[in-house]
């Protein structure tokens, strides 16, 4: 396993970070999730990311149970706050002081831990003054319930304003967690340069583009049974924008590039995001333990310059890179 510093902080994290999420919280899924966590540990992963909203708290419970008995100081555990949790009441969401302070206590209770290493704002809250949000995060840190703070899917301007307040408050804003992959590069224009300047590292999610970059979706063919594209509970809508024939045809052209490097297409995709110097970790999930073991093999891989150029040529204009799209992740109405 390769380890990298999280931004300009002194904390090192595993370059492959395991993302713990559950959609339904059934016993079968919980058992598989636990097996995946154990495989991650066996593979050298020490960093785990979750959120209170995943399966309405069940994901945190499963992660906490799977990590029970491990030396806490040898792990880096991240969680997030913003989206509705619990019964979904008026204050069970957003980045108000009330929700943040209650949210961290709920997360720690479910995780069975005294603190998390990183507490992240899952989205930007346009309805709460940023000063209120950052003061609440600072108080969480001062109470010893989180060591660092981060954000997820914030624009460069939002990050800059939050960083200035964090400096005033004397706390460490160290990370950004955006979507990033060969196909989705919207952070490169503004977010990455801003974070490089301010000392934040990227913990990127969906490096395999919801599974599209594995090459398992073929143009003109039915989707594989049990894949995300067939999940009507939400997975299908999330992946749909990648499932056009042009994109899928271009993705198939990556197969020989991966083969020449001795990598699977999934490993190539994960290694590609790790090639960005501002990326501290690639966040990978798994529905089977063997997927975890495969993804770990991408750690430490260096893709040659000619292969990087070949990837760009293969994907061409299906790549999304407009930095203005970052702002679309900021909800404009209450998520209730």
From TrEMBL:
<dbReference type="Pfam" id="PF00248">
    <property type="entry name" value="Aldo_ket_red"/>
</dbReference>
<protein>
    <submittedName>
        <fullName>Aldo/keto reductase family protein</fullName>
    </submittedName>
</protein>
<dbReference type="InterPro" id="IPR023210">
    <property type="entry name" value="NADP_OxRdtase_dom"/>
</dbReference>
<dbReference type="InterPro" id="IPR005399">
    <property type="entry name" value="K_chnl_volt-dep_bsu_KCNAB-rel"/>
</dbReference>
<keyword id="KW-0521">NADP</keyword>
<keyword id="KW-0560">Oxidoreductase</keyword>
<feature type="domain" description="NADP-dependent oxidoreductase">
    <location>
        <begin position="16"/>
        <end position="314"/>
    </location>
</feature>
<comment type="similarity">
    <text>Belongs to the shaker potassium channel beta subunit family.</text>
</comment>
<dbReference type="InterPro" id="IPR036812">
    <property type="entry name" value="NAD(P)_OxRdtase_dom_sf"/>
</dbReference>
């Amino acid at each position: 396993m390769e380890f990298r510093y999280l931004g300009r902080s002194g904390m090192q994290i595993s370059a492959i970070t395991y993302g713990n999420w559950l959609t339904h919280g059934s016993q079968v899924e919980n058992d598989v999730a636990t097996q995946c966590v154990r495989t991650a540990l066996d593979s050298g992963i020490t960093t785990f990311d979750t959120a209170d909203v995943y399966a309405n708290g069940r994901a945190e419970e499963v992660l906490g149970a799977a990590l029970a008995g491990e030396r806490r100081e040898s792990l880096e555990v991240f969680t997030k706050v913003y989206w509705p949790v619990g019964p979904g009441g008026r204050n069970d969401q957003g980045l108000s002081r009330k929700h943040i302070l209650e949210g961290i206590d709920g997360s720690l209770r479910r995780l069975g831990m005294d603190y998390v290493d990183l507490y992240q704002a899952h989205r930007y809250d346009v309805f709460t003054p940023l000063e209120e949000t950052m003061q609440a995060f600072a108080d969480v840190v001062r109470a010893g319930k989180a060591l660092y703070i981060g954000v997820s899917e914030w624009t460069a301007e939002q990050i800059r304003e939050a960083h200035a307040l964090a400096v005033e408050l004397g706390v460490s804003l160290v990370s950004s967690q955006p979507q990033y992959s060969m196909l989705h590069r919207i952070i490169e224009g503004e977010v990455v340069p801003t974070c490089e300047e301010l000392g934040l590292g990227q913990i990127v999610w969906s490096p395999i583009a919801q599974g599209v970059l594995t090459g398992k979706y073929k143009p003109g063919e039915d989707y594989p049974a049990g894949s995300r594209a067939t999940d009507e509970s939400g997975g299908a809508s999330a992946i749909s924008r990648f499932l056009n024939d042009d994109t899928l045809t271009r993705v198939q052209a990556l197969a020989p590039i991966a083969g020449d490097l001795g990598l699977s297409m999934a490993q190539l995709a994960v290694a590609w995001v790790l090639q960005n110097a501002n990326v501290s970790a690639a966040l990978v999930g798994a529905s089977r333990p063997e997927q975890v073991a495969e993804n770990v093999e991408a750690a430490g891989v260096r893709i040659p310059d000619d292969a990087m150029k070949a990837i760009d040529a293969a994907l061409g204009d299906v790549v999304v890179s407009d930095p203005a799209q970052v702002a679309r992740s900021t909800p404009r109405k209450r998520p209730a």
